[in-house]
Structures are given as C-alpha cells and as structure tokens.
Amino acid sequence: MEELQRILIDGQPVSQPDRALSALDRGLHYGDGLFETIACEGGRPRLIERHLQRFAAGCERLGLAPGDGAALAREVRELAAGTPRAIVKLLLTRGVALARGYAPTGVERTVRIALRYAWPAPDAEQERLGVRVRCATLRLGENPALAGIKHCNRLEQVLARREWADPGIAEALMFSSSEALISGTMSNVFLVRGSTVLTPRIDRCGVSGVMRGLVLEIASAAGISAEERRLDAADLAAAEELFLTNALTGIRPVRELDGVGLAVGPLTRHLQAQLRAHLAAEAHGGDDSE
Q1: 78: which residues sit within 8 A by CB, 6+ positions away?
Q2: What is the model's pTM?
Q3: What is the mean pLDDT of each run of 10 residues along the chain (290 residues)?
Q4: How far apart are CA 66 and CA 90, in angstroms?
Q5: Cα–Cα distance, 64 to 18 (Å, whole number)
Q6: Which residues contact 217 (CB under 8 A, 6 or more apart)?
Q7: Torsion angle of alpha carbons 226, 232, 233, 237, nearest 10°?
Q8: Of 49, 160, 184, 288, which one has the fewest beta carbons inside 10 Å?
Q9: Residue 173's closest CA among 121, 81, 104, 243?
C-alpha cells in the first residue's frame, strides 16, 4: 500500500486530509468528477501531456471547467520534484452541491485535488516472468457517454476486485454486458495473434489508458500491425501472447490466465524494449507528448 505524502486542494497544502473536503461535494455524492494517476520518476511526471489531454477531454465530456492546463502541469511537477519515485493522483470534482439533486446549478466551482504517494520499486520478476490473471465474474455496463474517460465512479472495479484475495493474482480481465472483452480492473489488455497486436475497442465502456495509447503508437512506429477491434472470450482463448498495460507498470506479460499457462512471447518482449527506450528518452529530456 503506497503511503500518502502530500495533498494540495486548489493548489494549497492541506495538513488535515480527513477534514479537507466539504460533505456537500458532488464527487462524494455522485462520483461527479475525473481523475488521473501519474507515474513520477527522477523528480519528473511521466507522460504528463498525455494525461492532461485525456483529463481535458473528460472535462469536456462531463461539462467541467478544467482550469489552466499549464497551472495543472506546474502543480503536478511541483509534487513530483525532489522525489526519486512517486505517484501523483489528480482529481477534479464539480464542487459543492448548491442544491439537493442530480442536476448541477451551473454555478458550482470545481475542486481540484492533487495527492502524492510513495511509489515502491517495481517488481522486476513481474516484468520479466509475467503475472497471473483471472477473469472477473462481474460485467461492465455499456455506456458510450462515459466510455474512455477516467470518471470517479469506479464501483464496478471495486466489486470486481473483491472477487479474489489471492495475492498471487495480479489482475482480473473484465467483459461487458454484451460479452465483449474490455480491460482489466486497472489495466488495458492486448492480445497477440500471429504478427498482429489486438486490443479491445473502448467505445462502449472502459478507460482509454494513457499507456495503451502509447503502446499502440510504439507498435505502429516499429512496423507492427496493431488494431483496435471488438474482442470476446474466443479471441482471448486463441491468444498466442497476452499482456497488460498501465500508466504505472508499463507492459506486464501474462504468464497464466485462469490457471492456464501462457508463453511470454517475442512481440511482447519487443514492445517492452521499445517502451523502455521511449520512457528513457523522455526521462532525459525528450518530448513526452510524442
């Protein structure tokens, strides 16, 4: 469990986090808000431009005032500065409910929260040998109006995560109500079939992950055929390689799915190497929006 280190609310330090928010905040009442989870290494936030682009897109979708993007970036960088490894979580809620009920009044003032957590060193064995994964029983509801964005209502993921307690299982894959493969509880999923990399469409539900987008771009730049398409349980069963992506963990191969072993294959290894090179270049001053 990562240790909470600092909190800013609307840019101001908070010393008593348990009393920091109004009991009338719409994020608390309705999940009316968005969040981003940003990996920080060597005192710098990783892929920050990609995170802020998704954040702005989510604000537009929900009708939230995103504030000054440059100021948001400065705030995240301030929290990251001086830390070898940290996680910064950025949240935005619609703010205090001025009247009871779902309908916003239109004059609410958004509340911005930034938190910094300690980030332990990664598990090198998971990156090298892969992780064990199961399939979740819970199905994701399909709602194109919310598909792709990282909104604050994560109850489906909470319930799916309650389905197992075995610490050796790293993740659960989730299907939608129409039995389409979508993602993990906290990751995006990729399959390899032949020389093609496949990942589920995120047009009915699920989160369009920052790392997912980067991996698709890296694959294309490397001349690897990569497609977003509707996938189901049959596609999952036919996968020759399987890997997960996440903004914190990068690419993690899957070595076992529901007790069945999987090989960590050459395309997964190649993409891992390409991703490491990209992130290393960014850390040494490259453009993190590429």
Answers
A1: none
A2: 0.94
A3: 86 77 93 97 96 96 90 94 96 93 93 95 91 98 97 98 97 98 98 97 98 98 97 97 97 98 96 96 64
A4: 12
A5: 25
A6: none
A7: -20
A8: 49
A9: 243
